[in-house]
Design a protein that fits this description.
single chain; six-stranded parallel beta sheet; Rossmann fold; binds 6-O-phosphono-alpha-D-glucopyranose; binds manganese (II) ion; about 450 residues; about 50% helix; four-stranded antiparallel beta sheet; 13 strands; globular; alpha/beta
């Protein structure tokens, strides 16, 4: 079985390969094709993978290519994990928004819109090529903003593209742990859009345990989201939001904290990863060693500014290892081997959330089998959540429309309608600045 990874020179690829090495079951991936536009990054990551595979019998073969069509032909699974504009682009997304006193963040608010506008045309091109060259392949989209990008691709690939994120499963696991429940046995009632969802219940043996958590300030203070949002607000909401909702509920504090921070997250990662790839410019440098060191440093600082500002504290070590690669591998196994499982994924709505149309990509629990990911029906969202979901989805639709038409006015509309952008004039200035700094936005005229 062949897996193609787009963005194959990316820093997180060894996490995926590590998960593949641990998979000994029948029907596992035997061949990995790495695609990247940057040959230097590809060769650095290829060396890391070779060191990971040393001594592992039957390690999946690795091939690196820079031609996209060649990478796609014959693929059974495609992981799309690209970053259009690189980390320099992410840093600019963050910086430009903060300069206008609105949230500058990778996937949320103005920063997320800029990233989406840059990424959608590239993702659509990939989707079209997959449809032509590997029509039977399953595409697992890691590329952020994951919900929006998955929706763009689904217009060409239908339900053969599935978006993933590590945050819902991580949140569910933390809540289960606090409640003394086995995360594998708990049913997590998580609903929303990517980076915009809420855990509304956690059922074990037919009983909802979430009320017990919401009633207990000590339990609420014992995990990350509990500290991030505060017991009182969580009790008022009656749900545990995804950590990204912090940017909505405590927007002013988040913007302040980011403005005060010396460096944005994107700028930090840009510099850190530049050092890593540079270090591996020396063909004798131990690659896995350098990667491990860089990774430890990256995770120690994960969203640190925001967490510290909010008193959320450190993330537990356990959670750092249960990320994207595990969700992706679980999904791939379920599809390839018909091992039925449930996972929280980004898929087309198909009637699951009545407040959105059928083609809107939502993030909900899905039953996964050889036929793909089937969203499970859920109860309706409370009014406040439905309102937010609908307005953010409306913004996503404007981003898709701007990318399809190249209309600058529609791009302004996307920014202006976002709940975290507080003036049409700010939206205009954001479009001015973003089109000035991002070559990938030249299509907006
Ligand atoms: C979480 C989110 C991802 C996001 C990442 C950012 O894992 O689910 O979608 O890309 O955080 O982490 P970073 O280390 O790049 O700031
Ligand atoms: Mn995510």
């Amino acid at each position: 079985m062949r897996l193609t990874i787009l963005g194959g020179g990316g820093f997180r690829v060894p996490l995926v390969y590590g998960a593949l090495l641990a998979d000994r079951g029948a029907g596992r991936v035997t061949e990995v094709v790495l695609h990247d536009l940057d040959a230097g990054r590809l060769s650095a990551i290829t060396r890391v993978l070779a060191e990971q595979a040393a001594g592992v019998p039957d390690a999946p073969a690795v091939r690196a290519v820079t031609d996209l069509d060649e990478a796609l032909r014959g693929a059974d699974f495609v992981f799309s994990a690209i970053r259009v504009g690189g980390l320099e682009g992410r840093a600019a997304d963050e910086r430009v928004a903060l300069a206008q006193d609105v949230l500058g963040q990778e996937t949320v608010g103005a920063g997320g819109i800029a990233y989406g506008l840059r990424t959608v045309p590239v993702a659509v091109d990939i989707a079209r090529r997959v449809a032509r060259l590997a029509p039977g392949a399953w595409v697992i989209n890691f590329t952020n903003p994951a919900g929006l990008v998955t929706e763009a691709m689904s217009r060409h690939l239908g339900d053969r593209v599935i978006g993933i994120c590590d945050s819902p499963v991580g949140l569910g696991r933390r809540i289960a742990r606090v409640l003394g429940a086995d995360p594998r046995e708990a049913w997590i009632d998580y609903v929303g859009l990517n980076h915009l969802g809420w855990v509304r219940g956690l059922r074990v043996g037919g009983r909802d345990e979430l009320p017990r958590l919401l009633a207990d300030p000590a339990l609420l203070g014992s995990f990350e989201e509990g500290r991030l949002f505060g017991a009182e607000w969580l009790r008022t909401l009656g749900a545990i939001p995804n950590e990204y909702l912090h940017y909505y509920y405590f927007n002013r504090e988040a913007v302040d904290a980011y403005q005060r921070a010396g460096q944005t997250r994107g700028a930090f990662l840009r510099d850190q990863q530049a050092r890593f790839y540079e270090e591996l410019g020396d063909p004798h440098a131990p690659a896995l060693d350098a990667w491990n060191r860089t990774r430890a440093e990256r995770e120690a600082t994960y969203m640190a500014e925001n967490r510290e500002a909010a008193g959320a504290g450190e993330r537990e070590e356990d959670d750092l290892s249960g990320g994207y690669e595990k969700v992706a591998l679980a999904l791939m196994r379920a599809v390839a081997r018909d091992e039925r499982t449930t996972l929280i994924l980004n898929v087309r709505n198909r009637g699951t959330l009545p407040e959105l149309d059928s083609d809107a990509v939502v993030e909900v629990p899905c039953l996964v089998d050889a036929n793909g990911a089937h969203p499970v029906s859920t109860g309706p969202l409370p009014g406040h959540a439905a309102g937010l979901v609908r307005s953010v989805k409306a913004v996503e639709r404007e981003v898709l429309a701007a990318a399809a038409s190249g209309s600058r006015a529609v791009a302004v509309k996307a920014f202006a309608l976002h709940p975290l952008v507080d003036s049409v004039n700010v939206a205009r200035r954001l479009v001015e600045e973003y089109t000035r700094v991002h070559p990938g936005l030249a299509y907006l005229g």
